[in-house]
Amino acid sequence: MGFNWWRDAEPDDMSAQAIIDRVAAEWRAERERERIRTERPDPGLWPAGWPHEAPEHPLSVSEAHQTMQRHRECRADQCPRKAAARRTLIEAGRMKQDTSREER
């Protein structure tokens, strides 16, 4: 009897099932990363002084710049601190308000 490629070949990770398993694992990992990224903690659970709360005093222009850099992942409509920094920079003339997205 000759060499049987299906039984005697060394298994590698290129079998159809191995590829399906790898793609499924990558898909699950990406879904989990996306879920974690979009999941927002409940603001009621944040301790006092949490860095996303509105500042207790008006921000200076340099503080506003630093805040915008630190909160670049946040949306201004969801992060009061970034919204305050944005207002400060607009009032100081360092930033222009985006009017292209406003309703006409």
Describe this structure in words.
- With 104 residues, the chain is an all-alpha fold.
- The protein contains 4 helices and no strands.
- Helix 3 crosses helix 4.
- Residues 33-82 are annotated as: Disordered.
- Residues 33-42, 70-80 have a biased composition (Basic and acidic residues).
Write the topology of this structure.
Elements: H1 5-8, H2 16-38, H3 61-70, H4 80-91
Identify the notable features of this structure and list them briefly.
mainly alpha, 4 helices
Largest sheet: none
Radius of gyration, in angstroms, nearest whole number: 26 Å
Which of globular, elongated, flat, extended, rod-shaped describes the shape? Answer: rod-shaped
* Helix count from the secondary structure assignment: 4
Please trace the helix and strand order, writing H or E for each element: HHHH
> How helical, in percent, are the residues?
40-55%
Distance linking N and C termini: 81 Å
The stretches of 5 or more residues where confidence is low (pLDDT under 50) are: none
The portion of residues forming beta strands comes to under 5%
Nearest-integer average pLDDT: 82
